[in-house]
Structure formats: structure tokens, C-alpha cells
Automatic annotation (TrEMBL), chains A, B:
Source organism of this protein record: Nitratireductor aquibiodomus
GO MF annotation, one: isomerase activity
InterPro entries with a match to the protein in the record: cNMP-bd_dom, Cupin_2, PKS_Associated_Protein, RmlC-like_jellyroll, RmlC_Cupin_sf
Gene3D superfamilies, per the entry: Jelly Rolls
UniProt xrefs under Pfam families: Cupin_2 (PF07883)
Sorted UniProt keywords: Isomerase
Domain Cyclic nucleotide-binding: 37-75
Stated name of the protein: Mannose-6-phosphate isomerase, cupin superfamily
Statement: the UniProt record of this protein carries the keyword Phosphoprotein: no
Amino acid sequence: MKAINLSEKLSLFSEHWSPRIVGSYNGNDLLVVKVKGEFVWHSHEETDDFFLVLKGRITIRMREGDVELGPGELFVVPKGVEHCPVAEEEAHLLLIEPAGTPNTGDPRTAVTKKRI
Amino acid sequence: MKAINLSEKLSLFSEHWSPRIVGSYNGNDLLVVKVKGEFVWHSHEETDDFFLVLKGRITIRMREGDVELGPGELFVVPKGVEHCPVAEEEAHLLLIEPAGTPNTGDPRTAVTKKRI
């Protein structure tokens, strides 16, 4: 039983778009991720998608308009809504997803999320 | 569809131990709360209890030992585990709870959570 320090967890890896599991909440994974550049357009048919920016800035592109996020700002993409996260410079995020959610919305292209 | 700025939401109220709903994720409320002093010992039989410190420091007392949290640190109290959050100085937190969870573990003593 100890605190999970998000900066410390983020210092353990450098890959972009490769979320690491740092904890669990009611069957959801709590993840940290480093992002830079443009991800893929995707949606999650079964779950909302939670983003909290810890460092840097991201844009979540959606068909009906973009949302810009800086440190201390969060946004939840409603389930089924197509989106494409983009970061001009490296940004660090906290994500929450039901365990097993494919990061690309498609198990065939999704990364495997390691616990750290 | 816009970013939720946690500092901005926290600037809208001053009461301690009175969480405000700022968003939703898969049937969970996303809440910000200002805390100071000692809360009550309680547990949630049906849910884990998510705490992320945004500002200040808190101690989560538990029967089997305390967890100390500073900014950027999170802890999930497992469901059913008795705990008592304490903050010597005012601290600001992000909480995640299934909608309708009583903050004291008991609907008779729980505060009503307003959406802001």
C-alpha cells in the first residue's frame, strides 16, 4: 500500500504512444503515457476515453471539433466518438480505461500495456 | 465538447470535504474536492476509492498503515478497506467514484455532490 508517483513512473520509459499500467480502479487500468506526434483516428465502441494532461499540451481532434488540453486539464471522449490525439511536443498523460481496452480501438493494431 | 480545467473548477468554491462533479466517465463521477483537517473513518463496500493529489499533501490513514500523498501522486483505496483522509493544510484532489457513491460511505451522513 503506497502512493503511485506519476512522474516517477513516467521516468521509467521513453517510448511514445505506449501506455504503462500503474494501478487499478474497479476493473479499470490507470495508465501513464508519453505522446508526441499524431496518433491514429479511432474510437472505442464500449467505453469513454479519459485523458488528463500532466505535462505539455495535446489536441484531441474529433470530427465535430478539436479540444485543446494543457496541464491540469482533462477531457473524456464519449464512447463511440472518433478521435485522434496529437501532440506537437512531447506530452505526458494519465489515462483510465477498462482493463483490456485496445489503445487503437482495434485489438489487431493495439500495443500490449505493461504494468510498471 | 471542451477541456475541463481542474484549477478553474476548484476556484469556484471554498468549502472543505464537499466534492463537486466536473465530468463523467463510464457511469463514474469525476470530482474535485478541497480538503483540510480530518475526515471520518469510513469504507465503501462496493467500490475502490481513487485519490489524485493536485495541490498540497494528504495522508490516507488505514488500519494497516498510512499512505502519504503529494502533488502528482495517486492512491486507490481498495473496496471495503476502512480509511480516513487527513490534510494538515488545505489540499486539492481529483476523485473518481461510481455516480451516487456516498462520500462518508453512508447515505445518511453523505454530502450532496453538485455538478459545476
